[in-house]
Each structure stands twice: as structure tokens, then as C-alpha cells.
């Protein structure tokens, strides 16, 4: 027992409790008021001006992007510290960019969003540091990054510090490339060096009528070249979606655009260490696709729309086409098979007979690289007569551009399945993920023709002298074409030599793909140890 007598403490001998000062409550109330002002932005007049241009405010855009109530803002009270040219009297909170994170379909996504109402969304030192911060957080958390771009470029009053801010963004774009999905949503102007950040990201979305991208604007173009052109014609959504290939997607309004961004995010993994999210589907894995027997003509010279084939094969006929309006002779799309995301590359016989050219090769190569970076299996639907001939193509570098697609496939370690629908001629057959460059499986329909060239061209080369010496060259040519086709181009020629794994009933294409992809789910194909390859440019 302690020798010290223990007594209960009495309330009246305790030190008096100081009441919480009213000042703290006042400060909390002031803080809440400040946050309300930040949320409201620079005022009703600026908001009305934004709306008058057909554009939403930055907060309205964020609300459309994220699941309701999930957005958390960081550095909302940040202000610039620049002086000169009157900037010291215009120190607005957020400094023209809202940054933070939220949930899209329940998964974390980071965002930076320009506020055109503040300094025209122009980038200064503090503005750039906020973007750097959120890019670093996205990389650390392993979550996608979305940029809602509506800014006037570098803040001229801040000089070189603004340019350095862009440099920090570009460096992070490259460092995060292939690590986390990066999406740029163009909702306003983007000129000069600022356009390079979207170009470094995985996907660019644009809105018709309100977003433009260009390195030099119409005035400079006219002054230097004498060409007269509008902003929209020079760098609008349709120009970049159909001519330059800069924009992967173009939409008529911001709401539709942001809804499609959400849809794209639902098909991408959070980072390169994860698989894309799987979703339950009511579309049976074993469903036969008898409609394919009527969609695809057996005659290799007849056209059809490959998108109808894709619709029949994938879950519920739903797919997201990337670069839909650019290089339309090849189709690149994200879809699901048995609830799991796949990337589809397909020749389009309805456009230029499905040949590969410079733009189609670039488009498909970029898509293959993206799928490989983010663990998305590849399905290649082949119906290709070869590479597009012509002086423009040769002088434009079809060799190196075609090599980009070849490099992308050869370097890809995700599951890869080739399906040869009809013709597959020459180097284009090899480039379209043939077994010889590493496809895990090659399936073919019973009308496939795999050869160096078409039977007519081959017969003219192989039997040139015999045809010339014949009494009736036309009859001799027809006979020899049939002979060549029957001996070297019949549907089972490649299968007999192990270059096609199986010749299948087209109606079984869906079920065979799903079964093969399930088998390949745990595929492990490590690349050689190296810093990086030197891919064709």
C-alpha cells in the first residue's frame, strides 16, 4: 500500500477551464466565407461572359466529371506573388486553375482545370506549381490525371517563370507517360507551346466551336504565309479530329464530351500495374454470331463495314472508337469481351479497301502502344490488300511510318490475337500482328487468303513468259491464276504450315476470342533489359 494517501480530486481544486475564445469561432466563420467566395469565383459578370461563349465554368465542369460530392480541392487559397504591370493588385485565389481529386465510377481520378475567368486561364508561376503538385500526387497515388484546358497560354507579365512552368508540366507528362492514364480535354483556346502538353498525353478530347489548338494563330499565319484562315479552320475540333490526328475525340458540347471522358476512364486501369476494370455482362460468352456470315462477302474485292463485325463480336455491341474521323482505313476501338476490356485494331475495307498508309500506320501504332502500356489485350482483325502505293506515300515516309506499327506490335507484351477475315497480302499481313512477329494466336476464317500478293498479280509475275507465249493469253492467265490460288492461297495453306493456329467458323469468333483471352490472362513476356528502344520516327 502506498504511503501517500490517495484522495479523489475535487472539481473545485482543478485549474479553471478557459472558455474557447469567440475569436476562433469568428475565424472559422471567416474561413467558411472565404471558401464560399473562392467557390463563387470572380463574379457574376465573368461567369455570364463565360456562359455567353457557350462554355461552362470550371466548377460546373468538375461537377460533370466527378461522381456527385466526391471532389476534394487542394491549394484553393493559392495566390501569385508576382509584381509589376499591375499584377500586385490582382491576386485572385486559385490563380486561375482548380486542382484536386475525386471519384469517377468510384475510382480516384486527379484533375487540374483552368478557370478562364481568372487571368484568361493564363499560366504563371503559382498556377504552374499547382499543376506540378497535382501531377506529382497523381503519379504517387497511381491514378489517372485529367486536364480540363481553357487557358490563354503563358502569363506574359511573369515572363520566363511562366515558360519554366510549362517546362515542368512537359517533363511530368513524359515521366508519367505509360505509368498513369493522362487525358487532355480541350474546352477553350490552347496556343503556342501550351499545345505540347496535350500532345504528350494519351488522349485529347475537343469540343466543336469553343476549343482550338495551334502553335501559331491565324494572324501569324497570314503575316508569314499570306494564308487567310479562321481559328476554327486552323485548329478547331474537326480540323484536329480529321486532318491532323491530334484529337482522338470531338463532340458538339461540353456535357457530352465530359460524359465520354467518364466512359473512357471506365475502360482504363488506374495505372500500369493494374488491369482494366472488368464489368459483369449479360451477353453470353458462348453466343454464336451467325450475322457475320452475311456481313462479310466471300469475294475479297467486295466492300463491307468492319464496324458491323466489331458490333457483332463485342459485348452488347458497345465500343469506343478512337480517332474515328482520322485515317478511317483502319479502326481502333476499346470494347469488352465477356466483361473484360480489349483493344481492337481492324482494317476497314469500306475506306481505301482497308490498305495501310502513313496515317493509318501512325494511328494504329499509337493505339497499340497505349494498349500495351495499360495492360489491355489486343485483338487484330485483318482484311488488308497491302500498303498504299504512290509517290506521295513513298516520299512521305511510308517505310518509317509503317515501321512504327511493326515496332509497336513487336514490342507489345499483352495478350495478342490475330483474326484473318479475308485477304492478308504482303508486308501488310506481317505488320498486322502476324504469328511471325509475336501474336500469341492466329485464327482465320475459311475464306482467308494469305500471300505475298493477290493471285492475279502473282500469276502475272510468276507465269509472265508462259502467258505471253500462249495462243490466248487471257485464257492462259485465267487458268494460271486459278492454279496459283488453289496451290498457294487456299484457306488452309497457312494453317498447314503452322502460321495460323486454326481455321474457324466465323460465327464462333466471339467465343473463340473470349476463350483464348482467358487462357492468356496470366501471360508473362518480359522484354530484354534496356533503357528503352529506339523506335522509328
UniProtKB/TrEMBL annotation:
Q: Which InterPro entries match?
A: AccD/PCCB, AcCoA_carboxyl_beta, ClpP/crotonase-like_dom_sf, COA_CT_C, COA_CT_N
One Pfam family this sequence matches: Carboxyl_trans
Which top-level group of life is the source organism from? Bacteria
> What positions does the domain CoA carboxyltransferase N-terminal occupy?
24-280
Positions of the CoA carboxyltransferase C-terminal domain = 284-532
Spell out the SUPFAM superfamilies in the cross-references: ClpP/crotonase
Q: Which PANTHER family does the record match to this protein? A: PROPIONYL-COA CARBOXYLASE BETA CHAIN, PROPIONYL-COA CARBOXYLASE BETA CHAIN, MITOCHONDRIAL
Protein name (record): Acyl-CoA carboxylase subunit beta
Amino acid at each position: 500500500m502506498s504511503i501517500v494517501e490517495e484522495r479523489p480530486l475535487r472539481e473545485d481544486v482543478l485549474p479553471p477551464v478557459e472558455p474557447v475564445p469567440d475569436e476562433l469561432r469568428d475565424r472559422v466563420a471567416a474561413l467558411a466565407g472565404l471558401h464560399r467566395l473562392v467557390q463563387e469565383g470572380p463574379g457574376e459578370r465573368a461567369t455570364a461572359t463565360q456562359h455567353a461563349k457557350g462554355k461552362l465554368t470550371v466548377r460546373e465542369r468538375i461537377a460533370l466529371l466527378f461522381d456527385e460530392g466526391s471532389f476534394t480541392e487542394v491549394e484553393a487559397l493559392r495566390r501569385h506573388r508576382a509584381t509589376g504591370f499591375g499584377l500586385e493588385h490582382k491576386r485572385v485565389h486559385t490563380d486561375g486553375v482548380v486542382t484536386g481529386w475525386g471519384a469517377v465510377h468510384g475510382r480516384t481520378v486527379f484533375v487540374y482545370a483552368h478557370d478562364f475567368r481568372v487571368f484568361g486561364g493564363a499560366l504563371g508561376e503559382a498556377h504552374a506549381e499547382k499543376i506540378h503538385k497535382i501531377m506529382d500526387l497523381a503519379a504517387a497515388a497511381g491514378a489517372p490525371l485529367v486536364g480540363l484546358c481553357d487557358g490563354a497560354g503563358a502569363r506574359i507579365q511573369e515572363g520566363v517563370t511562366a515558360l519554366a512552368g510549362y517546362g515542368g508540366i512537359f517533363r511530368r507528362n513524359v515521366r508519367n507517360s505509360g505509368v498513369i492514364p493522362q487525358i487532355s480535354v480541350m474546352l477553350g483556346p490552347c496556343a503556342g507551346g501550351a499545345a505540347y502538353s496535350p500532345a504528350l498525353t494519351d488522349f485529347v478530347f475537343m469540343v466543336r466551336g469553343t476549343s482550338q489548338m495551334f502553335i501559331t494563330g491565324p494572324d501569324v499565319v497570314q503575316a508569314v504565309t499570306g494564308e487567310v484562315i479562321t481559328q476554327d479552320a486552323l485548329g478547331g475540333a474537326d480540323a484536329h479530329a480529321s486532318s491532323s490526328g491530334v484529337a482522338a475525340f470531338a463532340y458538339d458540347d461540353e456535357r457530352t464530351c465530359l460524359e465520354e471522358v467518364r466512359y473512357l476512364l471506365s475502360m482504363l486501369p488506374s495505372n500500369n500495374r493494374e488491369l482494366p476494370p472488368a464489368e459483369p455482362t449479360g451477353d453470353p460468352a458462348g453466343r454464336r454470331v451467325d450475322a457475320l456470315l452475311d456481313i462479310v462477302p466471300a469475294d475479297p474485292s467486295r466492300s463491307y463495314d468492319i464496324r458491323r463485325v466489331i458490333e457483332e463480336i463485342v459485348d452488347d455491341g458497345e465500343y469506343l472508337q478512337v480517332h474515328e474521323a482520322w485515317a478511317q482505313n483502319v479502326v481502333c476501338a476499346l470494347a469488352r469481351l465477356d466483361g473484360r476490356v480489349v483493344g481492337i485494331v481492324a482494317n476497314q475495307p469500306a475506306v481505301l479497301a482497308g490498305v495501310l498508309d502513313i496515317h493509318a500506320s501512325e494511328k494504329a501504332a499509337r493505339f497499340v502502344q497505349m494498349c500495351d502500356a495499360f495492360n489491355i489485350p489486343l485483338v487484330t482483325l485483318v482484311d488488308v490488300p497491302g500498303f498504299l502505293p504512290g509517290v506521295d506515300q513513298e516520299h512521305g515516309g511510308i517505310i518509317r511510318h509503317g515501321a512504327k506499327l511493326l515496332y509497336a506490335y513487336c514490342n507489345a507484351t499483352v495478350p495478342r490475337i490475330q483474326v484473318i477475315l479475308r485477304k492478308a497480302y504482303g508486308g501488310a499481313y506481317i505488320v498486322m500482328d502476324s504469328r511471325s512477329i509475336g501474336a500469341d494466336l492466329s485464327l482465320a476464317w475459311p475464306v482467308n487468303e494469305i500471300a505475298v500478293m493477290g493471285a492475279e498479280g502473282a500469276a502475272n509475275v510468276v507465269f509472265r513468259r508462259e502467258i505471253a507465249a500462249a495462243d490466248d493469253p487471257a485464257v492462259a492467265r485465267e487458268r494460271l491464276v486459278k492454279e496459283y490460288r488453289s496451290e498457294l492461297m487456299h484457306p488452309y495453306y497457312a494453317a498447314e504450315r503452322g502460321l495460323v493456329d486454326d481455321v474457324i467458323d466465323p460465327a464462333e469468333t466471339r467465343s473463340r476470342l473470349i476463350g483464348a483471352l482467358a487462357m492468356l490472362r496470366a501471360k508473362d513476356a518480359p522484354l530484354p533489359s534496356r533503357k528503352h528502344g529506339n523506335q522509328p520516327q
